[in-house]
């Protein structure tokens, strides 16, 4: 699938997060994708920084994960989510048509940004690790020198810090504002959300990625998901503006979020 097709698909799904749209997209796109050979990333050993740490820098293709319970190419979900009674209520009453926040171009949050099909660039130094999401040109800068979490106001993307466990980089995020959803289909979380992302790089062309979601208000035990990111040195990041042509919101077909 070409870059413009992927961006269009992401915009549609972000605005109307329902299974029918996702299914229709899959039927339309599958024949085109089937005609294209699977991309083969460059091969070689795991790159290291001058200080000897694994270097995750690059532009990466990541699997599209609209539903974190489902398995797909390069990703493994958790089929049954262990809801608390509060979490079950938040899930069963969710209706994207009643004002999903992404339809108003509000920040997706950490998990939903990693789930999008657009590319993600990583920039890394000995002190910082930066996510550059093509989706809405958002970015998150994470200190990875072992410092503790800050005590600030809750935010859409939370407060992230990183540390090394051998050759694995662990990014720990807390202090979310509770206004987002885990994925496009709308799995909930609260402001007690705690996200742990683990990055390892077995070779030049791939990142092995694991995410663990902990939220005692919403789930009775951790929710996990694993994926593979693929290096795309042939790609460059593009500007993406949700607000620029959001006619469905301007013309009232999308409801403004209530909060």
Blueprint (SSEs and pairs):
Blueprint: H1 3-15, H2 19-34, E1 58-61, E2 75-76, H3 85-92, H4 110-115, E3 120-124, E4 128-133, E5 139-143, E6 159-165, E7 168-174, E8 194-203, E9 206-214, E10 223-231, H5 247-250
Antiparallel strand pairs: 1-3, 1-10, 2-10, 3-4, 4-5, 6-7, 7-8, 8-9, 9-10
Care to describe what's here?
A hairpin with an 8-residue loop joins strand 9 (206-214) and strand 10 (223-231). With 259 residues, the protein is an alpha+beta fold. Helix content is 18%, strand content 25%. It has helices at 3-15, 19-34, 85-92, 110-115, 247-250, and strands spanning 58-61, 75-76, 120-124, 128-133, 139-143, 159-165, 168-174, 194-203, 206-214, 223-231.
Please sum up the structure shown:
With 259 residues, this protein is of the alpha+beta class. The protein has helices at 3-15, 19-34, 85-92, 110-115, 247-250, and strands at 58-61, 75-76, 120-124, 128-133, 139-143, 159-165, 168-174, 194-203, 206-214, 223-231.
Relevant terms:
259 residues; alpha+beta; Lipocalin; ten-stranded antiparallel sheet; 10 strands; 25% strand
Q: What is the total number of structural domains?
A: 1
Proportion of residues in extended strands: 15-25%
Number of helices: 5
Supply the helix-strand structural class: alpha+beta
Distance between the termini: 36 Å
Please tally the β strands and state the result. 10
Q: Provide the residue-averaged pLDDT.
A: 88
Name of the CATH first level = Mainly Beta
Q: Tell me the CATH superfamily.
A: Calycin beta-barrel core domain
H/E topology pattern: HHEEHHEEEEEEEEH
Stated plainly, the CATH topology is called: Lipocalin
Low-confidence stretches: 1-30
Shape: globular
Cα Rg: 18 Å
> What level of helicity do the residues show?
10-25%
């Amino acid at each position: 699938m070409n870059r413009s097709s992927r961006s269009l698909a992401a915009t549609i799904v972000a605005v109307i997060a329902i299974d029918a749209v996702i299914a229709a997209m899959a039927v339309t796109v599958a024949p085109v994708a089937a005609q294209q050979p699977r991309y083969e990333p460059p091969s070689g050993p795991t790159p290291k920084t001058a200080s000897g740490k694994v270097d995750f820098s690059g532009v990466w293709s990541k699997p599209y994960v609209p539903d974190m319970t489902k398995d797909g190419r390069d990703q493994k979900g958790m089929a049954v989510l262990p809801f608390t009674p509060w979490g079950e209520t938040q899930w069963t009453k969710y209706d994207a048509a009643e004002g999903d926040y992404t339809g108003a171009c509000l920040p997706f949050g950490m998990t939903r940004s990693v789930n999008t099909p657009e590319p993600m660039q990583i920039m890394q130094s000995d002190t910082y690790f930066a996510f550059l999401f093509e989706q809405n040109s958002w970015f998150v800068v994470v200190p990875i020198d072992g410092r503790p979490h800050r005590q600030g106001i809750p935010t859409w993307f939370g407060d992230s810090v990183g540390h090394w466990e051998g050759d694995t980089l662990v990014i720990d995020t807390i202090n979310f504002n509770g206004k987002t959803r885990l994925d496009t289909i709308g799995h909930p979380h609260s402001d007690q959300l705690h996200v742990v992302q683990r990055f390892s790089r077995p070779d030049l062309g791939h990142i092995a990625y694991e995410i663990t979601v902990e939220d005692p208000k919403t789930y009775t035990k951790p929710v996990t998901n694993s994926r593979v990111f693929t290096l795309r040195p042939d790609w460059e990041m593009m500007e993406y503006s949700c607000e620029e042509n959001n006619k469905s919101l301007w013309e009232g077909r999308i409801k403004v979020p209530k909060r």
